[in-house]
Amino acid sequence: MSIRVLLVDDQPLLRTGFRLILESESEVSVVGEAANGHDALAATRRLLPDVVLMDIRMPVKDGIDATREILAWARGAGQEVRVLVLTTFDLDEYVVEALRAGASGFLLKDVPPDELVAAIRVVADGAAIVAPAVTRRLLDRFADKLPSTREAPPPLLHRLTEREREVLRLLGRGLSNAEIARELVVSETTVKTHVGNVLTKLGLRDRVQAVVYAYETGVIRPGEGD
């Protein structure tokens, strides 16, 4: 089955360009477009896309609020919807807010067509396209500058064992499973089990969200481990 994509951008020419790229791929189907976050939420409810390709800066409702509302609706409706954020500027601080809102990653708008298609495939499969180490660098840079758009999440750290909390701290540093295994002197299989437990207990979707959570709850501070 093809991957159903919703295009969200306030610039019609950009939407047309992305549509031309994606519709040349047999496994991708563009099911709709929206020019702002408000319309994106309505279109998501109506069209049930697998992936929403989301701009950040738009009138009426920006991509950050739209991402948060779309994913909240999807959870409540039992739908699998992923958001892939697009930005004009590298290391845009609002990209971090989009990750906090639950986006699966981000790309620059001048991304080569083959990388755009590949990223949509990855996100549709449930993975993140921003490496945890990259997320960590973003948070290091912008953690103290971000506007607060919501209350902090409830601290669920008490659900974790001491070992799982240590794994969360190492995830927050952007370490891979192999690197965590070396740090803790355990097998990668054991690390994989711990990571799965951390994500499940904290209600997180992937490692990127684990990095964000580690910063938000003070498990790791900007610059720690450099």
Automatic annotation (TrEMBL):
Ranges of residues in domain Response regulatory: 4-124
SMART domains: HTH_LUXR, REC
BP GO annotations: phosphorelay signal transduction system; regulation of DNA-templated transcription
Residues that bear 4-aspartylphosphate: 55
UniProt signal peptide: none
Pfam families, sorted: GerE, Response_reg
InterPro entries the record matches: CheY-like_superfamily, NreC/VraR/RcsB-like_REC, Sig_transdc_resp-reg_C-effctor, Sig_transdc_resp-reg_receiver, Tscrpt_reg_LuxR_C, WalR-like
Keywords assigned: DNA-binding, Phosphoprotein, Transcription, Transcription regulation
One annotated GO molecular function: DNA binding
Chain ranges of the HTH luxR-type domain: 153-218
DNA-binding among keywords: yes
Protein name per its UniProtKB record: DNA-binding response regulator
Organism expressing this protein natively: Marinitenerispora sediminis
